[in-house]
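Exercise: predict the fold of this chain.
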Amino acid sequence: MHEQVGAVPAGPAGRRLTWPWFLVVVVVYVGIIQGLGALSGVDTGDSDSAFPTAESIVRNALVPIGASIVFGAAVVTWLGWWGEVLRYRAPVRRWVRWVPISMLAVALIGMNYGHLADQSLSLVASLLVLGVFVGIGEELMFRGIGVHVFRRAGFSEGKVALYSSLIFGLAHVSNAIGEGAQAVVQALIVSTSGYFFYLCLRVGGVILLPMLVHGLWDAGLFSNLVGDAPQASAGTALFIVLQVVLIVVLSVRRRAVEPVTDAPAVGASAQLPPVN
């Protein structure tokens, strides 16, 4: 069959999810993590460590985060967005490639290997699985569903990055249930990290890259917190320094992060031009 002259291009595939309803999805997502954490978790109040044992990682983190992954996957399946969620085409300038490269390097170099060597094999294995779970679960929800909610709504890439990152940070305010006021500061820091993970998505063009970067980044940070006696290392400073450097660089060059033109509507036939 020949295409009809003047035919309207097909719209985005799958169901529509507006950003207010996405907020509802996020509330349910957070509720699953916090609710199951309260039900299945073990009390670590007598320890200075967030994860003193492998059991505490499994019951306090892996069980609730695993359930949130199932929930996120179910939402994507119901929406029919897997094709979009797995791939993201919005080219960036070449210098942005240093964002995932530097984050991966710091995560690997800054890992507290000496402290982990003193822990049981089951505890270290649980920590690595935790990194995988966090990377998959949070990226699926915020760089998968969240980014596409705002992109489908017609927002520019800058606003897609900003709004999805802010919601990512706000979701972590729920940690105030166990951590108090410092969770607010954490939420601000997490929002900037969310922007970096968004750029990883842009650089890789597939959600697997931000999942990998996010998972290793958190595993590196958590490597100081496991065991009966948490132990900070010199590598911890690398995470802080890189976070500050990336914030400064992206504050200065934030406009250069935008593509030459905003991404076309999902499902449109136009292609973004390559960006130098």
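Check your answer against the key: Residues 121-152 form the longest helix (32 residues).
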